[in-house]
Write a structure and sequence with these properties.
Layout (H helix, E strand, L loop, with lengths): L1 H9 L4 E6 L8 H9 L5 E6 L17 H6 L5 E3 L4 H14 L3 E4 L22 E4 L5 E6 L3 H13 L4 E5 L8 H8 L5 E8 L4 H10 L7 E6 L10 H8 L3 H12 L7
Parallel strand pairs: 1-2, 2-4, 3-4, 6-7, 6-8, 8-9
Antiparallel strand pairs: 5-7
Length: 262
């Protein structure tokens, strides 16, 4: 499929491929790397059910390393949108770009977070849901976004000043963006339904390491190596500590209560 897509793209077409979880990217990584990305061709690889959306199907169906693989390939932009509005915005961008792209989707039916269509990004690939965050700022990528927003709302009700920023284009983050997001907060938490290394958390940690000072950066995702369990998606999120309740507990354990902020 990827070889045919690359051939069609060589003649001027923009081609969209589609498959479940990591099958259309990881299984065909050599063709994506050599035929599409190296030659800078207009092929967009769409994967559905990334993360642990097909949790009960086991490790073979879990798309939990693909963001790390993909973002290292030449010429590609990788989108991991958090709701259907972000999907439309990201796909439009990838098509208009006419270069290699990848679009990581949930399994479908995830709740909407944005109030309406997205016209443009305000943070070069990062979309502010709530730019507060004097106490804690969540950075989220992918379909885990509604869970992160729910945790932020609960913490806000307790008196914490919480910010949430969705990062559908991890490949668009740069050091200045990360520095701005780290500024003015006591705690940064990255959340992704992906390995906690190699994805969004890894990108933020790499940039933070070069800064003279920054608040703590906590990365929440799937453990490495992933355990040999086959749980449904919600149970997987809880097992790895990035469901709503786990995120609330994490912030409380690091910041205490909202009344102790000062």
């Amino acid at each position: 499929m990827l070889g045919l897509a690359a051939g069609l793209a060589m003649t001027g077409w923009t081609v969209i491929t589609y498959s479940i979880a990591n099958f259309g990217t990881v299984r065909s990584l050599e063709q994506l790397r050599n035929d599409v990305c190296y030659h800078d061709r207009s092929v967009i690889c769409v994967s559905v059910g990334t993360g642990a959306a097909y949790g009960s199907q086991g490790y073979t169906h879990h798309g939990i390393e693909d963001l790390g693989f993909l973002k290292m390939l030449p010429n590609i932009e990788v989108a991991s949108p958090g709701d259907a509005h972000e999907v439309r915005w990201a796909l439009r961008h990838l098509v208009e770009r006419r270069r290699p792209g990848a679009l990581r989707l949930g399994r479908g039916g995830e709740p909407l977070v944005h109030q309406g269509p997205i016209a443009e990004a305000t943070l070069a690939g990062a979309l502010a849901i709530n730019l507060g965050g004097a106490d804690v700022r969540f950075l989220s990528t992918g379909a885990i976004l509604p869970e992160v927003v729910a945790a932020a709302e609960s913490l806000g009700a307790e008196g914490f000043d919480v910010g949430v920023v969705s990062v559908p284009f991890v490949t668009a983050l740069d050091e200045d963006i990360v520095a701005n997001l780290l500024a003015g907060t006591r705690l940064m938490v990255t959340v992704e339904e992906h390995l906690a290394t190699g994805g969004l958390g890894g990108v933020v940690a790499e940039f933070a390491a070069s800064m003279p000072s920054h608040p703590p950066v906590l990365r929440r995702g799937i453990a490495h190596p992933p355990p040999k369990v086959a749980l449904d998606q919600n149970a997987m999120r809880k097992h790895h500590g990035f469901d709503r309740e786990s995120l609330i507990t994490l912030v409380r354990s690091h910041l205490g209560t909202a009344a102790k902020r000062s």
